Automatic annotation (TrEMBL):
PROSITE patterns: BRIX (PS50833)
One term of GO molecular function: rRNA binding
Gene Ontology biological process: ribosomal large subunit assembly; rRNA processing
Domain Brix intervals: 1-118
Signal peptide: none
Protein's name according to its UniProt entry: Suppressor of SWI4 1
Subcellular location: Nucleus, Nucleolus
Gene Ontology CC terms: nucleolus; preribosome, large subunit precursor
Length: 118
């Protein structure tokens, strides 16, 4: 079973697709591949070798734009592929500061000083 990209995009309220998402390889997440069966180990090795390994100490989090989740169902012996778009957003700040960090400039015509914004 699969879905066409045009069907996925048409079902989304706000889709985020741009060319920069595909300039770097995705973050690969394998689920339920820890079994001792040789065919499961072979599948896990194949998926890991499809993408370059990521050094978690040196990776720039802003360069990771996609995540590929591959899950193995042991009962049905089927693979589920999920491809996600990842967006890094600041948390724990007020709305005005978030806009400044995301390069969306707020309307400051009502303010007399920048301190009113912060």
């Amino acid at each position: 079973q699969y879905s066409l990209i045009k069907d996925v995009v048409s079902s989304l309220k706000r889709h985020r697709m741009h060319e920069q998402q595909f300039t770097h390889h995705p973050l690969l997440v394998l689920s339920n591949f820890g079994l001792q069966q040789i065919q499961v180990k072979l599948m896990a090795s194949m998926f890991q070798n499809m993408f370059p390994s990521i050094n978690v100490h040196r990776v720039n989090l802003n360069s990771i734009k996609r995540c590929l989740l591959i899950s193995y169902n042991t009962e049905t012996q089927l693979l589920d592929f999920r491809h996600y778009s990842v967006k890094v957003v600041p948390v724990g700040m007020n709305k005005a500061v978030k806009k400044l960090l995301q390069e969306k400039f707020p309307n400051m015509s009502r303010l007399e000083d920048i301190s009113e914004l912060l």
